[in-house]
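Dear colleague,

Following up on Tuesday's group meeting, I ran the structure prediction for the two-component complex that the binding team flagged. I've pasted the input sequences exactly as they went in, so you can double-check that nothing got truncated or mislabelled along the way. The structure tokens for the whole assembly follow below. Feel free to forward this to whoever is handling the docking comparison.

Inputs:
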Amino acid sequence: MREKEFGVWRPITWRRYLDEVRWLALGLTELGLRRGDKVALVGHNRPEGLWAEMATLAIGGVVVWLYQDALIDEIQYMVDHADARVLVGEGQQEVDKGLAIKPRCPRLERIVWDDPKGMRGYDDPCLVSLAEVRRLGQEAHAKDPEAFERMVARGAADDVALLFYTSGTTAQPKGALLSHRNMLKMGQNLMAMDPCEESDDYVSFLPFAWIGEQMMSISCGLMAGFALNFPEDPETVQRDIREIAPQVMFSPPRIYEQMVRTVQVKVLDAPKPKRAAYNWAMRVGGEVADRRFAKQPISWPLRLKHRVADLAVLRKLRDHLGLARIRHTYTGGAALGPDHLRFFHGIGVNLKQIYGQTEIAGISVVHRDGDVRYETSGLPIPETEVRIAPDGEILSRSPCVFQGYYKNPEATAQTLRDGWLHSGDIGFIDERGHLVVFDRRKDVMTLADGSRFAPQYLETRLKFSPYIKDAWVLGDRRDAVMAVICIDAGVVGKWAEDNHIPYTSYPELSQKPEVQALVRDAVLHVNKALPQAARVQRFVNLHKEFDADDEELTRTRKLRRAFLEERYQAIVEGLYSGAREIHLESTITYEDGRTSQTRHTLRVVETA
Amino acid sequence: MTGDPLLRIESIHLAFGGVKALRGVSLEVRRGEIFSIIGPNGAGKTVCLNCVNGLYRPQQGRIRFEGRDLEGLKPYRRAALGISRTFQKLELFSGMTVLDNVRLGRHLHMRGGLLSGAIYLGQASREEVEHREFIEREIIDLLEMTHLRDRVVGMLPYGLQKRVELGRALALGPKLILLDEPMAGLNLEEVEDMARFIIDINEEARWRVTCLLVEHDMGVVMDISHRVAVLNFGEKIAEGTPGEVQADPMVHQAYLGEEEEIYTSRR
């Protein structure tokens, strides 16, 4: 693996990796950790985080990763519910959070920290530095060189390895238990399908608390042995990805949406000849990709044009996005719109959709190379069966299916029935055997004409416009479909500046008639491709962006619809009553937990 | 915070023609403390800093640094002694990158000359790497500028430029740093960051820099300073801990205002 520190990529050998894990495991044992104990981990992606995870697993403990940006109450709930005995954090920020929740977590004994910056004044006895843990481990190893091997040998494939809390779109998160076998089988099966070389590079920048990152960095990383590259800072991730140019990547849709938006914005800015070149190249690239997937022949003139387009434009685009050496890259965790998929294949990036969940240690379904259809999620991976229940629910069965929910037998009984994992998603299998995911069961809408509709479908299409960051579609059992749109602050702000439209804040910008016209055009464009009953009748631009801290989104940026309906009841009513304006009073939560009240007036725009 | 006096300003008088900017100001800044000078505009605070720095020359009085009289020493000589400063109006090269600007601050520690620098073998490259390592570890990491390294200073928002200014001043490796209105023009979040950095460089074992601040932001001054001096019309009218100065009626009359409001602490 490599870590970028102080501006330089520093390599870490596998031998050092093993040494660090050994010392940390022995050190944690000295502090009292035993088999089956839970260790909570929080922090940015860095080698120490990985070593701490491996050390815990070596002892036979259970790893609980928490999201870096989780609020204090969320952290307290998870640490307490998991019965964690140790919290391993990165630096002062995590220590502060740990000390704040400790009184409400009776089983929490120790807080381990790593980065000394700002730790001068802390003298709480429960705090211990990672360096100290390492030292204890080194001493223990010197006294008993076989201790580590013995400890590891006691582990079995079906021991619980991870306790991961799933992003609760409703209610409190549930803790899914995953075994060693679950995780390694996932790595094995994925690598069997899309093999990676030991010489490959992977950039690890998504939270370790996300099962997708665990699957790639740990399951696949261990199975295939490729190098993990840890960026310097969350702010330098884009640059670091470009420097490394990894061969394989896995991200949630928002990363790809962001990439597309960046390109679209730069193109809007570019001089006419460049824009023309870009549009031409994209057309050629798109056509070639379409033909390839439809298994149609590609004529010689088209091949030639594609070569030119690739050399002149597409190659540069790939390099700019850090995708110059990508062999395959995945998107998962939520739906990515078909337009976005087409964009990437058009520029020559092998982007594949996956479908899966925490409860199956990662994925059950993925596109095969050369068999990518934009509306589907692909075919099951080895040793995996996927079946559709009579009511349309997607069921999966594989050696990676989880062990159950921690301390929650009712939820476990509901989700794991007869060995089949009930996903809570509705979908069907198309004529080519590809799985098509409709939406979460509770989110599927029934339209005015009785047909069923996935709001996700409409939302992802809307998000293809660079001006729209988020969209929330309403219309279940109503006579029309409505939308609540969050404009992208950066892109629309720049557009407003270019068009000499003054504004002072996001709420003001969102209500400007010119901006509303801009969004209206985007909505009309999407409406054209939809059946009548599914077309958006009216929309409002929301005065703020959806935020996980406001509980509007999960930590993986999925909409929490039930909560949104409750919070913005006034908007829902206003849209359906035909009002021209909607008055809102709402509470905003700042990152440090403070709240404030605000009042806004939203103008409704017709698109019927 | 008791330490031996690092800087002694003894009864300095400075006049610009008929305008008496400083009238017998005496101060003592102890090693390891954060000392702030406050006062209304035109009180002579920046003039005071400029005298310590060597940019102005007082007509009367002495300034002693570590016991040594600074009389007649040019500013660059004083820098070599370990006095660094930031400027109210940023003095950065706006066309150069952040890293280059910080590197400039290191120039006093460079031994290689023009020729060895041009050939770049042996001593010159070794020195370059050493200094770069110092800058990366101690300054860029401390001031959280890792993502700004290669950005051109002129393109950065004002708050970040001020941070680069601080970084440049720190690159000298000073014993005493003169900060001229470090909080001016910063929003709430940036002020908190800057205050944190000042506390860091003062308290971190690695740095332990004595800070002499000129500031208007009362919240910050009262929160982070060990001692405060108040100037008014070129004279020192009060000196002491933040609590003592806040309670002083003369200070209230001259500067703070008649109400007995306590400034909200941001610590």
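Chain B is about 35% helix and 25% strand.

Cheers,
M.
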